[in-house]
Design a protein that fits this description.
This protein is mostly helical. The chain is globular, with a radius of gyration of 25 Å. The chain has helices at about 15-40, 45-65, 70-80, 85-95, 100-110, 115-130, 135, 145-160, 165-170, 175-185, 190-200, 205-220, 225-235, 245, 250-260, 260-275, 280-285, 295-305, 325-330. Helix 3 packs antiparallel against helix 4 (about 85-95) and helix 17 (about 280-285) runs antiparallel to helix 18.
């Protein structure tokens, strides 16, 4: 492809027209991927709505795969110079072509401190990485690279791969964000070794690491795990969500007390909703007038199944300091 210009962009030629089409496919696929987290949290969208979006994304990916070398060149360019969504799309196309060399180039271009790019990279490769490439992705001697360590942890978690030993070795020196992911991956292996490794992390300085350690400990099957986690949750608000897994009726009155304290009230309401104890209904109704109202409403919906919701119009009042003079004048005139 030496005949291609240094920068691939839409120009008024046959090749330029095709480049423009591939750039548009990349942009549309990137937008769909970036919208996915918000759509998955949107209670107004049904599962078949999400399926329609996946079908649209798949159509754009197919177009880029069928585009051959020119589409690959466009994907390579945007994987290095585009946004996170385009990186995600390009990596999926590279995997479908079996181009591990292009995957490597794209990964080298990811900033290890860019969470959005790391999410795009990991999400794409967890979805598309060919099975034959899995051993290479889990090579212990490569896990000093935070990008590869992030990918290895997510692969072990999502695909249940046997990469525990390398993750155990990398755990002590990993930054907090990666330690939490590593502990999550280790939690997929329920045995005594993992129990011994994650139990001390219940006192880790990072709240996310502590939460993942508690969940991993519960998954380990250790006989004293529930009691240990329940004791830790009494003094650590970060562990409140684990009560939805390990809590019992005796914890409900205590959670009612936690609901009165704003820093932990929302988490307590979420847990009460998942526990489903009818005794929580009056307490949650009272909480609807406080800062934890959204979480209390969700909890009541979970417990009762009443789906008592309504849409309320909230007027968007402009900040006059952000308006131009002519806009201020129009605002003054109604």
């Amino acid at each position: 492809m030496d005949h291609l210009p240094a920068i691939l962009e839409e120009v008024p030629t046959g090749q330029g027209f095709r480049i423009g089409l591939y750039l548009e496919h990349l942009s549309e696929a990137a937008a769909l991927w970036e919208q996915r987290p918000a759509d998955r949290e949107n209670p107004d969208l049904a599962w078949f709505d999400l399926g329609d979006e996946e079908a649209r994304l798949e159509a754009h990916l197919d177009a880029l795969v069928l585009g051959g070398d020119l589409a690959l060149a466009v994907c390579r360019q945007q994987a290095l110079d585009g946004d996170a969504g385009e990186l995600h799309t390009a990596l999926r196309v590279f995997c479908r072509h079996g181009r591990s060399d292009l995957v490597g180039v794209a990964m080298e271009g990811v900033d290890p401190d860019d969470d959005e790019a790391l999410n795009a990279m990991s999400d794409a490769l967890v979805a598309e990485l060919p099975t034959a490439w899995e051993p290479g992705a889990l090579r212990a001697d490569l896990l000093g690279d935070p990008r590869r360590l992030r990918l290895a942890a997510d692969l072990v978690t999502a695909r249940q791969l046997p990469g525990r030993d390398g993750l155990l070795d990398a755990l002590p020196e990993a930054p907090p964000s990666l330690r939490a992911r590593i502990v999550r991956a280790l939690g997929q292996t329920a045995d005594g070794l993992v129990d011994g490794v994650v139990r001390p992390l219940l006192s880790d300085e990072d709240a996310e690491v502590r939460l993942e350690a508690a969940v991993a400990l519960l998954r380990s099957g250790a006989p004293d795990a529930p009691a240990t986690v329940l004791r830790a949750a009494r003094t650590d608000p970060a562990l409140l969500p684990t009560l939805a897994l390990a809590g019992h009726a005796a914890a409900v009155p205590w959670l009612h007390e936690v609901l009165q304290h704003p820093p932990s009230a929302a988490a307590a309401a979420d847990v009460l909703g998942l526990m489903g104890d009818p005794r929580s209904v009056p307490v949650l109704i009272a909480a609807l007038s406080g800062e934890a109202a959204p979480a209390a409403a969700r909890a009541l919906d979970l417990i009762t199944g009443a789906d008592l919701t309504a849409d309320t119009f909230v007027e968007d009042v402009p900040d006059e300091d952000e308006l131009f003079d002519d806009e201020k004048e129009r605002l003054a005139n109604g």
